């Protein structure tokens, strides 16, 4: 259940970075935000007291959620353009 928080945060980040036009800048912002939000989620859940390696796991979940929302948003835009 705790894995849903970083995935949901990643989906919000993924939708937010869609406003950045440059693909390179969008990729950099997405990676930095995934690390920062992943660390914040690990801290809020108290996982850092157990093991610092949880940052990488939560950052990966944030990145996965962002990637899913970016792909879904792109597919939705393509479908809307065809209609």
Description:
The chain has helices spanning 4-16, 23-44, 54-82. It is built from 3 helices and no strands. 77% of the residues lie in helices and 0% in strands. Helix 1 (4-16) crosses helix 3 (54-82) and helix 2 crosses helix 3 (54-82). The protein is mainly α. The mean pLDDT is 92. It has one domain (4-78). The radius of gyration is 14 Å and the shape is elongated.
Helices and strands in order:
Layout: H1 4-16, H2 23-44, H3 54-82
Percent range for β-strand residues: under 5%
How many domains, in number, for the residues? 1
Mean pLDDT: 92
**What class would the helix/strand composition place it in?**
mainly alpha
Low-pLDDT stretches: none
Sum up the structure in keywords.
83 residues; 77% helix; elongated
Question: Short summary of the structure?
Answer:
This protein is mostly helical and 83 residues long. The chain has helices at 4-16, 23-44, 54-82. It starts with a helix and ends with a helix.
């Amino acid at each position: 259940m705790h894995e849903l928080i970083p995935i949901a945060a990643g989906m919000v980040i993924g939708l937010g970075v869609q406003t950045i036009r440059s693909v390179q800048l969008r990729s950099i912002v997405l990676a930095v935000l995934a690390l920062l939000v992943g660390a914040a989620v690990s801290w809020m859940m108290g996982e850092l007291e157990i093991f610092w390696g949880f940052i990488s796991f939560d950052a990966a979940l944030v990145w996965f959620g962002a990637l899913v929302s970016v792909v879904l948003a792109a597919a939705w835009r393509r479908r809307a353009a065809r209609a």
